[in-house]
Amino acid sequence: MPWEERGKNRYFYKKVKQPDGKWKKTYFGKGLRAEVEAMLYEKQQAQKRMQRKISKQVADAKAAQKRQEKSTFKLVDLMMAGDGYHNPDFRGWRKISKAKSKNGAKTMDDKQPNENEYDPLDVQQCIERARNGDETALPSLKEHIQKNPQILSENFDLATSTHHRWITLLSKNDFFKAQCLWNEIHHLKEKLIKEGNGTTVEKLIIDQVISTYLQIYYHEQQNMERLSYCSEVPASETKALEATFNRHMRSLCTYSAINAISAKAQIEKAVNSAMENLNLAS
């Protein structure tokens, strides 16, 4: 403690770290100057504790967002593979080529997955088989999603938790601002869902878009606060904002691509249905 007892009196000593790494104690006595220095010291310590708390909250929010992003893109990959699409080397979603199956696709195993178990290894193998043109893997992927609806609900819960963490950081102790942010992302989510085709894959990506949107908002708010008392923003913060913006744009591009694929699939389905009805009538 900065205050040290000497007999019946207390004296204030302030420790200051020197350029060579050593600590030097400065004596301020027990008078008015000591009281002022003690108040300044307590204020500095409180600011440091608050900064450590905020840093931990930011780290937790980023970790939750990474888990959500990993879960989201795994599920999107799974569901799109079940519908016969893949995204080779992140060059865009396209139909899985049937020509690959001629080169020798793996046959399905006789053993069926347990209904109450989730085995990521088997699912990943099915995705790889689908990418290689093995159409027999598609029913297995769709069946896996139907038998394990909890993997979707877990992802949505993770997205809500991520949104909550970023809104807490943005609003601090301002509950009115927090409510405004929840209202804002609710309307944003409704708007994106309305513009899309209402598929589950789109909803997964929309939650990811909102998470990156909130993180960008947080970094921009921090930068504005820094510029109010200093002339420049740290390079690390600029890089963090750029990385978040890139992830946000990737999520938006994925949303647009899947939206277009869903619309095309609905049109093809409607055309095929109309042709079947026409053939039956003739």
For the structure shown, list the relevant keywords:
three-stranded antiparallel sheet, mainly alpha, 9% strand, elongated, 5 strands, 282 residues, two-stranded antiparallel ribbon, 7 helices
Characterise this structure.
There is one protein chain. The protein is mainly α. It folds into two domains: 3-42, no CATH class; 58-281, no CATH class. 68% of the residues lie in helices and 9% in strands. The chain has seven helices and five strands. The strands form two sheets. It has a three-stranded antiparallel sheet with strand order 1-2-3, with helices on one face. Strand 1 (3-6) and strand 2 form a beta hairpin. Helix 1 (32-82) runs antiparallel to helix 4 (150-171), helix 4 (150-171) crosses helix 5 and helix 6 packs antiparallel against helix 7. The protein is elongated. It starts with a strand and ends with a helix. The model is unreliable at 100-121 (pLDDT under 50).
Please give the structural blueprint:
Elements: E1 3-6, E2 9-17, E3 23-29, H1 32-82, E4 85-86, E5 94-95, H2 120-131, H3 137-147, H4 150-171, H5 175-195, H6 200-227, H7 235-281
Helix pairs in contact: 1-2, 1-3, 1-4, 1-6, 2-3, 4-5, 4-6, 5-6, 6-7
Question: What's a quick, concise take on this entry?
Answer:
The protein is mainly α and 282 residues long. Helix content is 68%, strand content 9%.
